[in-house]
Amino acid sequence: QVNDNLQRVRELTVQAQNGTNSSNDLVSIQAEIDQRLTEINRISEQTDFNGVKVLQQDNDLKIQVGANDNESISVGLQKIDATSLGLNTFTVSGDKAATLEDMVKEFGASGTSNFTVDVYDAAGSSTNGPAQVDVVSGTVTDGTNQLYVSQTTGRITSASDNTAATGAAGSTQSVAF
Fold first, then answer.
1. Same domain, residue pair 126 and 171
2. Domain that holds residue 40
3. Is residue 91 domain-resident?
């Protein structure tokens, strides 16, 4: 049931992003998404196995499968609801300001990765001129090297001697490893 609801949320999201929907259409799509997420929450709250709520919270279940004491299977279950799936604030009804969590870039052990930021005004038109990217805080990790951006000073700190960061030019920020 949870999978069916998630699949429908995905279908509705694709439908909402096709660019031909009116604001009323988006409101209707959002209403169905909200209903689907409410149903996922209901399933999470009511699903039980032998009196144990298996989806409402993280659980470790031990199921006896044989006649002897040590003949059991342990199953680790994780909480499943709209919040744990990261969908509790999901919306298709318009533009959203991106947060650091929304922008994830994975790096290889070597090479350069470039970030290009396109800036748009409230009407969705591209603006002229260079863009400024403000990173409040965060970490870039490639498995061995890390860059930390300080929230208070804006200073970039490396956890390794062989990590180098280059400055921004216009709307492109490069970080080399």
1. yes
2. 2-77
3. no
Q: Confirm if 2 and 40 have CB atoms less than 8 A apart.
A: yes
pTM above 0.70, yes or no: no
Q: What is the pLDDT of residues 17-42, one digit of tens each?
A: 887 888 889 889 999 999 999 999 99
Instruction: Tell me, yes or no, whether 92 lies in a domain.
Output: no
Give one DSSP letter per residue of the chain, joined into a string.
-HHHHHHHHHHHHHHHTTS---HHHHHHHHHHHHHHHHHHHHHHHH-EETTEESSSS-EEEEEE-SSSTT-EEEEEE---STTTTT-TT---SS-----GGG------SSSEEEEE---B-TTSPBPPS-------SEEEE-SS-EEEE-TTT--EEESSTT-EEEEEETTEEEEE-
User: What are 139-152's pLDDT values in tens digits?
Assistant: 444 444 455 555 45
